Automatic annotation (TrEMBL):
Cellular component annotations (GO), alphabetically ordered: membrane
InterPro entries in alphabetical order: TspO/MBR-related_sf, TspO_MBR
Pfam families in alphabetical order: TspO_MBR
One GO term (biological process): tetrapyrrole metabolic process
Lineage: Bacteria, Pseudomonadati, Pseudomonadota, Alphaproteobacteria, Hyphomonadales
Source taxon at top rank: Bacteria
PANTHER family from the UniProt entry: PERIPHERAL-TYPE BENZODIAZEPINE RECEPTOR, TRANSLOCATOR PROTEIN
Gene3D superfamilies according to UniProt: TspO/MBR protein (1.20.1260.100)
Organism: Hyphomonas johnsonii MHS-2
Name of the protein described by the UniProt record: TspO and MBR like protein
Membrane topology label: Multi-pass membrane protein
Length: 165
């Protein structure tokens, strides 16, 4: 089946970019306001990345999710035809922001683990839906799912090592 390519739907692109910008800004703002002292008191599981590596991999995750959404929008040519997978994308962005607020802002490690479980399911569903429009867009979600699984490992490790903390 030949692939139909359309000019980039600029409105879709702007909405996607605004969503990612907001997610990145809120996550960074919440993560940096949480004092290092509160995390330094917690027992950490093995393989905890440095703050710089953590921030870089989180940014890469956002970029991969965004690239997938842009590829889907590009293949469909308009927002309406891509509303299903882009709806999952925007929902995943919202849940990712929610995770940052719960983990870094509120400091509720147990609840943040539940939020990550929801996010993982959303990313898998998003990848499956992206596949209908673009195989590369779907494959870009594999490292995203792996990063979220790693975050869940870190969350579970922190939660388990710090009862009541």
């Amino acid at each position: 089946m030949p692939v139909r390519l359309h000019p980039l739907p600029w409105l879709s692109f702007l909405i996607i970019a605004a969503s990612v910008g907001l997610t990145g800004w809120v996550t960074a703002a919440v993560a940096t306001t949480r004092s290092r002292a509160s995390f330094s008191r917690l027992e950490m599981p093995p393989l905890v990345p440095s703050p710089g590596v953590f921030a870089s991999l989180s940014l890469l995750t956002l970029l991969l999710m965004t690239a997938g959404a842009v590829l889907v929008a590009y293949r469909t040519g308009n927002f309406r035809d891509a509303s299903g997978p882009l709806g999952l994308f925007f929902t995943a962005q919202g849940v990712l922001t929610g995770w940052a607020l719960v983990f870094f802002g509120v400091g509720d490690i147990a609840l943040s683990l539940g939020v990550l479980a929801v996010l993982f399911i959303l990313v898998i569903a998003m990848g499956r839906d992206f596949l209908r429009f673009s195989r590369p867009a779907a494959w870009l979600q594999v490292p995203v799912a792996l990063w979220i699984a790693f975050l869940a490992y870190l969350n579970a490790g922190i939660w388990g090592a710090n009862p009541g903390g």
